[in-house]
Amino acid sequence: MDEIGYSVEGHIASIQLLRPEKLNAMTDEMYRAIGDSLKEADTDPQVRCVVISGSGRAFTSGHDLLEFGERQAWKPWSGERFDNGLETAKPVIAAINGYCLAGGLELALYCDIRICDTTAQFGCPEPRWGILHGYGALRTPGLVGTSDAMRLLLTGEFIDAAEALRIGLVSQVVESEELISTAMDMAAKIAVNSPLAIRLTKELARRGRDLSLADGLRLYQEYSRLAFSSDDAREGTRAFAERRDPQYQG
Q1: HSE of 132, CA atoms in CB hemisphere, 13 A
Q2: Rounded CA gap, 182 and 27, in Å?
Q3: 158 to each of 51, 102, 142, 207, how far by Cα in Å?
């Protein structure tokens, strides 16, 4: 049985971790499969948004440490992995239940929007095992602030859904039975918008984090030129004038 499920319905791609008996602990093969699924969604013109979820009692408890411990020496990870350089132009939503730990938290941090249920627990326990929470250490301070990030990164303690919402790690907490439908509803709201405008907005927001305001505004001007000269912009303004929903082709 495949341990990563991939499907497309309408304009939404779903990626699901399917190893519930191991709390969806990720093997190297699962890391590769997640990367392959993200690349497939990114190159599929039908797909406009991606939702990632777990199965059973966890989103994912992270890298399978039994497999990790079998390595004879450290080796650099491939840039095809989500936690080591893979970029996705289309929006990605994490629907998080239960444990979201270590590499699992890094997968959630890779996503643009994080929604969790009331059972969710988040943590960076790698220091307990003598290894690093690498991608997460780079991303977490910018999301939740240095103090809360360091509390997570250095203590290895877990936080619950309410605390994750308080510090801004997630944007919404819902009941378990509402988790997937809430994430899919969010994806549907994104998918009705101009695909080009969504891609450019995501890239502007992500690249803008590392730019000065002046450089960010120059990038915005360049992206605006692309957006305003597109078929999507013409369709959007026509639809507004005609008081109808736009029909974007992407």
Answers
A1: 7
A2: 28
A3: 24, 10, 19, 30
Question: Given this model, what pLDDT does residue 77 score?
Answer: 58
C-alpha to C-alpha distance for 208 and 237, rounded to whole angstroms: 27
Give one DSSP letter per residue of 15-52, joined into a string: EEE--GGGTTPBPHHHHHHHHHHHHHHHH-TT--EEEE
Q: Which pair of tokens denotes residue 241?
A: 């004038």
Strand partners, 95: 53, 115
Mean pLDDT over the full length of the chain: 92
pTM to 2 decimals? Answer: 0.92
The CATH code of the domain at 195-242 is 1.10.12
b/e for 189-218, b at 16 or more Cβ within 10 A? ebbebbbbbbbbbbebeeeeeeeeeeebee
Residues ≥6 apart with Cβ < 8 Å to 86: 35, 38, 39, 79, 80
Query: Where do the domains of the chain lie?
Result: 4-191, 195-242
Interval 86-100: pLDDT, tens:
789 999 999 999 999
Q: In what order do the strands lie in the sheet with 92-96?
A: 4-9, 12-17, 49-53, 92-96, 113-117, 172-174
Contact 126/155 with Cβ under 8 angstroms? no
CB-CB contact of 94 with 139 (8 Å): no
Active site residues: 106, 126
Q: Which fold has domain 4-191?
A: 2-enoyl-CoA Hydratase; Chain A, domain 1 (3.90.226)
- Amino acid, single-letter form, for residue 106: E
